[in-house]
Specification:
Blueprint (H helix, E strand, L loop, with lengths): L2 E3 L9 H15 L18 E8 L10 E3 L2 E5 L4 E6 L4 E7 L9 E2 L3 E5 L4 E6 L2 E7 L9 E3 L2 E5 L5 E5 L5 E5 L6 E3 L5 E4 L2 E6 L2 E5 L6 E6 L15 E8 L2 E6 L3 E6 L4 E7 L7 E2 L3 E5 L5 E5 L5 E5 L7 E7 L2 E6 L4 E5 L5 E5 L11 E3 L2 E5 L4 E7 L1
Antiparallel strand pairs: 1-15, 2-34, 3-4, 4-5, 5-6, 7-8, 8-9, 9-10, 11-12, 12-13, 13-14, 16-17, 17-18, 18-19, 20-21, 21-22, 22-23, 24-25, 25-26, 26-27, 28-29, 29-30, 30-31, 32-33, 33-34
């Protein structure tokens, strides 16, 4: 588990609080890890071709990559930001934010934005830094770039909008901060004319013109008696089909919301930390014990669950064609069936951990490794 206690930058943790937090985290992690399930021989039921590869600096922060058409934008921990045309694996530009990064990349294919560990929002276009603006708190969620505006969610639950060209702040919406926040990328997406954000365990619909709330739909509620037990954030990628957005609440639930009406459709218990993917019929996710699960989009009932990767550390899934593409901490990229989770094929990009959910750019599956390898694969 990876938490951060939210407090003023000039204030140090008191010794008692630090000891208590360390003890709680130790209790979460346990003393030993169960043995991962043995993998069967690779059936190689369909071909997977590596089309290209690119190098970026190592990745050791909660990276989120962004895709617009065939353009994928991503970053290394040192502040390097790269735009790649996935059709040929060609870099369209490379820039540097000037500091190490705390959050992943948001981009509309032209304008890109990142957040540094110095709490600066940095806008980049064509390989050149346009502007930098100081934020009120740290951010671990990748900015959203839409309509030549940049939307930012910070760890103190604040949301803000910035003019993409000038860097002028357009509005700021502040909410009560929590004592602890996850150092993971949260939910911030555009659905029609609504900005949809994950705030605590709720999906919230926001007017992008002025930051006012339109609706709130709870996917999970805080529970427990201390800050760690009550921590409930929406994390990772979402699955969208029309107006229906499905998301995961950290170690709590998976649920779907009708964003046109701001109404929760269903919410089911799920124990995981990574985002979800899906199609018109199903929502797919990976659990903390290595299980791969398919929920029916209509009602949230489980369609199937696979334990073939029991006790393995997996990324969220990417639904592509008839397969789900899932990365693993061992450096293996798995292709499994969307029908029942059966293994179809697997490849190993460069041997270093895959901690970022793969993305689809055009007809190419893009995978990023901890060593900074960026690989484009095309199932045949």
């Amino acid at each position: 588990m990876n938490f951060k206690r939210l407090m003023p930058e000039s204030t140090a943790l008191r010794a008692g609080s630090a000891i208590l937090l360390a003890a709680m985290l130790a209790a979460c992690s346990g003393t030993s890890k169960p043995k991962p399930a043995e993998l069967p021989a690779n059936p190689a039921l369909f071909g997977v071709r590596q089309a290209w590869s690119v190098r970026i600096p190592a990745v050791s922060f909660p990276l989120a990559t962004d895709v617009s058409g065939d353009i994928v934008t991503l970053a290394g921990s040192d502040g390097t930001v790269v735009s790649i045309d996935a059709r040929a694996g060609r870099e369209t530009w490379r820039a540097n934010a000037g500091a190490t990064l705390a959050a992943g990349v948001g981009s509309d294919g032209s304008l890109a934005a990142v957040v540094t560990t110095n709490n600066e929002l940095v806008a980049i276009e064509g390989g050149k830094v346009l502007w930098k603006q100081r934020l009120s708190a740290q951010a671990f969620t990748a900015p959203l770039v839409a309509g030549r505006r940049i939307f930012v969610q910070t760890a103190d639950r604040s949301l803000s909008a910035w003019d993409g060209q000038s860097g002028r702040r357009l509005w700021l919406q502040q909410r009560t901060a929590e004592n602890l926040v996850l150092k993971k990328s949260g939910v911030l997406v555009a659905v029609g004319d609504t900005l949809v954000s994950g705030i605590g365990g709720r999906l919230v619909g926001i007017n992008p013109a002025n930051g006012t709330s339109r609706w709130e739909a709870p996917i999970a509620a805080p529970r427990g008696t201390n800050d760690v037990e009550r921590l409930v954030d929406l994390t990772g990628s979402v699955s969208r089909a029309g107006d229906i957005v499905c998301a995961r609440a950290y170690y709590a639930n998976v649920g779907c919301v009708d964003t046109a009406r701001g109404q929760l459709l269903w919410s089911k218990p799920a124990v995981g930390a990574e985002g979800v993917s899906g199609d018109e019929g199903f929502v797919y996710g990976t659990e903390s014990d290595g299980s791969v699960v398919a929920w029916r989009r209509a009602d949230g009932e489980r369609a199937w669950q696979s334990t073939r990767f029991k006790n393995r550390v997996l990324t969220g899934p990417l639904a592509v064609g008839r397969s789900l593409v899932i990365g693993e901490s061992t450096g293996t990229l798995h292709f499994v069936s969307r029908e029942d989770g059966a293994l179809l094929n697997r490849v190993t990009p460069d041997g270093s951990a895959i901690g970022v959910t793969p993305v689809m750019a055009g007809n190419t599956v893009v995978v990023v490794t901890a060593n900074g390898g960026v690989f484009g694969y095309r199932p045949e």
